[in-house]
Amino acid sequence: QSVLTQPPSASGTPGQRVTISCSGSKSNIGSNTVNWYQQLPGTAPKLLIHSNNQRPSGVPDRFSGSKSGASASLAISGLQSEDEADYYCASWDDRLIAWVFGGGTKLTVL
Amino acid sequence: QVQLVESGGGVAQPGRSLRLSCAASGFTFSSYGMHWVRQAPGKGLEWVAEIRYDGYNKYYADSVKGRFTISIDNSKNTLYLQMNSLRAEDTAVYYCARDPGFDTWGQGTLVTVSS
Q: Would you call B62 and A90 a contact, using CB atoms and an 8 Å cutoff?
């Protein structure tokens, strides 16, 4: 049972916009920033969004992040086949004094 | 370019020890905090430990507290994870990642705990 809650799966067709949610609590997302990671099959995770909504250099602007209260979302617009991957959210938890990850969302491009 | 390369994984019996290494290059290692994150087969990511850039402040997941120790050697640009009293549930790919925000990851090293 992960501290941050994500839907186990999501799907969309090419060109569509999909969103992935990440629900936490006051001690983590409610008090700290959220990062998002993309893990392509068989590879290491890659930072996709940091500080709630900031894209590192090289990440397409099709990817965007937002946060409201103790929840966060990752949006992917103009869905492409290469976006098929697992996506994870993460945040620092002030009560646990630990980093916490969501359980991950497997995105399928139909 | 910024690069992290893990090593030291392998097979260990329950109760035994292993030490993982993470060799860093392409950045000023002593200026960054570092993490270990693991991923059990077919499962999600689990944060394991963090060492702040000063090398003194360390944080651990409850699942490894008292058994694992994170450390750094700035002269070798290397991060370590000493894993003692290994359990079957420690079986995972172990990644090192750079702070802030796990912005760079290594390729991972597989640790299998089995008798």
A: no
